[in-house]
Design a protein that fits this description.
single chain, 0% strand, elongated, mainly alpha, 4 helices
């Protein structure tokens, strides 16, 4: 089941420790993180880390890693810019995204097209 942008923002706020489990975020917290989502995705695409086609239909295999990366990028919004654990999880999330998004061998026959 695909995850939505709202679920990504909620998971990010949980990862930051700003939002207790089972609670809904305030409008201000939600909007602060929401402003970073598109920029984060564009950055990941530009650096060939991964490509998310639709932010409202995020594949499960990317979801948690994206939430860690987004938490790492939004930590300064909540005064946590010096938290090494959040920074490390953001870096690890990026590495995991790259690994998950990398193509795997197909073991199929290579077709050659002579010119």
């Amino acid at each position: 089941m695909a995850k939505t942008r709202t679920q990504l923002i909620h998971q990010t706020l949980y990862n930051l420790g700003v939002l207790p489990i089972g609670q809904n975020p305030g409008t201000e917290e939600y909007n602060q993180v929401n402003l970073l989502v598109d920029a984060m995705l564009e950055d990941l695409i530009a650096r060939d880390v991964c490509y998310i086609e639709d932010v409202d239909a995020i594949e499960e295999k990317y979801f948690l890693h994206l939430a860690h990366v987004l938490a790492g990028q939004s930590q300064s919004l909540f005064g946590m810019q010096n938290d090494p654990a959040l920074t490390a999880r953001g870096i690890k999330g990026e590495q995991d995204l790259k690994r998950v998004a990398s193509t795997r061998p197909t073991y199929g026959a290579l077709e050659i097209c002579p010119y």
